[in-house]
Amino acid sequence: MTFDLPRRAAAEFVGSALLTATVIGSGVMGESLANGNAAIALLGNTLATAAILFVLITALAPISGAHFNPAVTLSALLRRNITIGGAGLYVGLQILGCIAGACLAHAMFELPLIQIATHERAGAAQWLSEGVATFVLVGTIVLVSRFKPEAVALAVSLAIAAGYWWTASTSFANPAITIARALSDTFAGIRPQDASGFIVAQFLGASLATVACGWLYRTRAAQAVSTAAAARSVSSSGG
Fold first, then answer.
1. Is 193 exposed, middle or buried, given 0-12, 13-18 or 19+ CB atoms closer than 10 A?
2. Is the residue at 159 inside a domain?
3. How far from each other are the two terminal CA atoms of the chain, in whole angstroms?
4. Lowest CB count within 10 Å: 159, 198, 210, 228, which one?
5. pTM of the model
6. Is the dihedral of CA 18, 24, 28, 30 positive or negative?
7. 48-105: pLDDT as tens digits
8. Quick check: is 222 in a domain?
9. Is 224 within a domain?
10. How many domains are there within the chain?
């Protein structure tokens, strides 16, 4: 079943908005209920994010592929699963959707709709964490979708849930959400001046994962076909 562009675009916008609203909203709720215990607040944030990811991917992947993330879209572009025009549209809608989701979360908790985050997340360890988190996320998507596509929603949810706890940055792994979180001075926020380092690391992690996975799942038969094609090309040009 193939869906037209307006429906795919709507799915990306809505999915990005609801994902961000959950990330920020659960952070606000967790912090308000944790009585200063950051571990409890992070646990609530983690569980809510993993749960909504599973739901959104299961519901919307058949329509748009459920990217909700420019790093995921970049990987799809590198693998030629989406056109340049389609990728550009997806990324624009993901960013707008994430900003809308941040505003929605703020509205639900009676906070100013647009804020400037003051939560410092800077330094090489944070950037490395984001690169690694995005590498794991994109690697999970590429490999699981190839070998066990019905498990993608669960695998992605678990990868993000784990990333909240084993990376120093708590695994944003999403440039669009990073932008939206810079506009939220809440538990999930990031200072605008720190966001660019996260975004660069996220795109690098996604690119490396795409290349690494492409090499990893390339079979000997595929290598032989590629070698034969290259040989024919050389022979033809030499003739």
1. exposed
2. yes
3. 45
4. 228
5. 0.91
6. positive
7. 999 999 999 999 999 999 999 999 999 999 999 999 999 999 999 999 999 999 999 9
8. no
9. no
10. 1
